[in-house]
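Example 9 (inverse folding). The structure is encoded as follows.
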């Protein structure tokens, strides 16, 4: 289930609500009882295999992946350095 971010339109309070995608939006601020609106948030990022510091130049051809995109290992690896 996703987490949605809301903002109170009366006082500007911001809060997050964990709810199903088909659930109705939260209409009342839990802090002051005022009306709310759903706001767009940055959302979740994605995780790259090998960490954020991994780059194409650090991948060792024939070990982590093939250099030519084949599904099996290359007979003669061509390193990209």
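The amino acid assigned to each position is listed next.
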């Amino acid at each position: 289930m996703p987490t949605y971010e809301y903002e109170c339109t009366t006082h500007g309070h911001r809060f997050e609500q964990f709810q199903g995608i088909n659930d109705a939006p939260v209409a009342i601020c839990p802090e002051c009882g005022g009306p709310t609106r759903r706001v767009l948030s940055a959302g979740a990022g994605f995780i790259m295999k090998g960490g954020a510091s991994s780059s194409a130049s650090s991948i060792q051809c024939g070990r982590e992946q093939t250099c030519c995109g084949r599904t099996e290992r290359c007979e003669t690896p061509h390193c990209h350095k």
